[in-house]
């Protein structure tokens, strides 16, 4: 069938069809397709995508701990030994504490009370003085009895102070024995843990080299 016959059968004038075909013809033309550009990556294969983050010799030489850790690390501040509290289960007898405390003052605490080297020195044995015969006329003197009473009171205060210090030293020594046992157990545990750490460190140094 000819084109003109087809147009006449459908009632389309030939002039309009030619105009429509000419008006739509430019839109049917396809845009020129540009071929994709090929990038040569052969020159970039040896370069890293993120320079500065991964060194080129990272796969050849092992990284040591001294290269990872910062050199200016803050060292911990020293600990005052006097501030360390040791967990000790020690409950002294209240009667012993009463005998070791000064009446009217704070109760004696064996955890805080410390003695100097002079106080812990052995004391010599004091021999009892011989009795001195006192004449009868002197016994009737009031000054003699006043001096004797004063001397007896001073001797009693001295004996009480010495007995008080001996009781305090005994309770303090008992507490230190308990504390010493607790510290020995703690030192044994710390040495065991230190041995494990040294073993781990020696295996690491044997594998990766000294730090």
TrEMBL record:
Ranges of biased composition (kind: Polar residues): 13-32
Annotated region described as Disordered, given as residue ranges: 1-80
Predominant localisation class: nucleus
InterPro entries: bZIP, bZIP_sf, PAR_bZIP
UniProt xrefs under Pfam families: bZIP_2
Coiled coil regions, renumbered to chain: 173-207
Assigned keywords, A-Z: Coiled coil, DNA-binding, Nucleus, Transcription, Transcription regulation
Segments forming domain BZIP: 141-204
Keyword Transferase among record annotations: no
Superkingdom in the source lineage: Eukaryota
UniProt KW Iron keyword: no
CDD domains, sorted: bZIP_HLF
PANTHER family assigned to the protein according to its UniProt record, in alphabetical order: HEPATIC LEUKEMIA FACTOR, THYROTROPH EMBRYONIC FACTOR RELATED
Name the record gives this protein: BZIP domain-containing protein
Organism encoding this protein: Eleutherodactylus coqui (Puerto Rican coqui)
């Amino acid at each position: 069938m000819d084109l003109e016959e087809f147009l006449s059968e459908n009632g389309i004038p030939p002039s309009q069809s030619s105009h429509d075909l000419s008006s739509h013809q430019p839109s049917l033309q396809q845009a020129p397709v540009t071929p994709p550009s090929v990038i040569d990556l052969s020159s970039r294969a040896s370069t890293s995508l993120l320079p500065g983050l991964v060194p080129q010799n990272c796969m050849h030489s092992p990284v040591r701990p001294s290269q990872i850790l910062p050199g200016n690390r803050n060292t911990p501040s020293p600990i005052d030994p006097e501030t360390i509290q040791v967990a000790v289960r020690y409950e002294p007898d209240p009667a012993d504490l009463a005998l070791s405390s000064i009446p009217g003052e704070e109760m004696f605490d064996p955890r805080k009370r410390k003695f100097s080297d002079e106080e812990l020195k052995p004391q010599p044995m004091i021999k009892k003085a011989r009795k001195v015969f006192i004449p009868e006329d002197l016994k009737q003197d009031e000054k003699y009895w006043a001096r004797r009473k004063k001397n007896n009171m001073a001797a009693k205060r001295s004996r009480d102070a010495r007995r008080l210090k001996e009781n305090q030293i005994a309770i303090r020594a008992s507490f230190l024995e308990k504390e010493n046992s607790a510290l020995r157990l703690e030192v044994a545990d710390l040495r065991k843990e230190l041995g494990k750490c040294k073993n781990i460190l020696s295996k690491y140094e044997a594998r990766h080299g000294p730090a």
